[in-house]
């Protein structure tokens, strides 16, 4: 570990197991967590590039959104950009999964869609809440993610193969086995105002509470697990 000072107002800090990226005044500093003596990497790399407005990090990638709403994906180990993406509407925020193979993009109209840097495919997310301020990917299921706002969460599953082609399903709540074949509406999971969701694992959400540390709960979509266990 090391102590660092950054010039300007720090807007964002993201990290993985090895690297830290800090966004301050439209610029990003990328450096290793441990003090190895390596030179910091800075973005934008040229004066012609737009200021950076949002950053995110996966295991091997740094995601950069610039002031024009364009997404650039940087492969940290190879010290090079590997992908660029621009949609019809400027991108404001991005939330990649752990491996960086999928990424939820939120544009300036409040809509969200799933972007895959692997094949440049885009899939719009149904019933996406414009108030969404965070996305959590499930650590056990790389196709499951939730949208989070101040009051509620919604769970989605990306299905890459189906009779209708790739699609994103707004997950409902199944209470009985015979309901699986029924067409049910997606549900929400409400959260207390003093809770901040931080980790999703196997449909179980871990949240930080101001008063008593970490709390846990199953998503409404996964309430059957409690019933199955007889809890």
Q: What are the segments in which pLDDT stays under 50 over at least 5 consecutive residues?
A: none
Question: What is the alpha-carbon Rg in Å?
Answer: 19 Å
How many separate domains make up the residues?
2
Order of helices and strands: EEEEEEEEEEEEEEEEEEEEH
What fold name goes in the CATH topology slot of the largest domain? Answer: Methylamine Dehydrogenase, Chain H
Tell me, what is the CATH class of the largest domain? Mainly Beta
**Could you say which structural class the secondary elements and strand pairing correspond to?**
mainly beta
Count of DSSP H/I helices: 1
Helix content: under 10%
What overall form do the CA principal axes indicate?
globular
Task: Give the integer mean of the pLDDT values.
Answer: 89
Main beta-sheet annotation: 5 strands, antiparallel
């Amino acid at each position: 570990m090391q102590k660092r000072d950054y010039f300007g107002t720090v807007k964002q800090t993201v990290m993985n197991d090895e690297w830290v990226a800090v966004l301050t005044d439209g610029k990003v500093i990328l450096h290793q967590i441990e003090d190895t003596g390596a030179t910091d990497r800075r973005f934008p790399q040229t004066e012609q590039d737009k200021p950076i407005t949002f950053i995110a990090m996966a295991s091997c990638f740094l995601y950069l959104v610039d002031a024009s709403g364009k997404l650039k994906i940087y492969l940290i180990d190879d010290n090079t950009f590997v992908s660029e993406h621009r949609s019809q509407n400027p991108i404001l925020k991005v939330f990649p999964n752990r491996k960086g193979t999928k990424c939820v993009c939120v544009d300036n109209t409040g809509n969200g869609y799933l972007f895959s840097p692997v094949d440049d495919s885009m899939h719009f997310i149904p019933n996406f809440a414009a108030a969404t301020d965070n996305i959590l990917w499930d650590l056990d299921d790389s196709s499951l993610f939730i949208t989070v706002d101040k009051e509620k969460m919604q769970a989605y599953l990306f299905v890459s193969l189906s009779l209708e082609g790739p699609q994103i399903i707004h997950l409902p709540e199944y209470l009985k086995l015979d309901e699986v074949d029924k067409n049910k509406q997606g549900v929400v999971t409400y959260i207390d105002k003093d809770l901040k969701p931080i980790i999703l694992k196997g449909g179980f959400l871990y949240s930080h509470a101001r008063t008593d540390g970490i709390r846990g709960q199953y998503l409404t979509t996964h309430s059957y697990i409690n019933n199955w266990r007889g809890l």
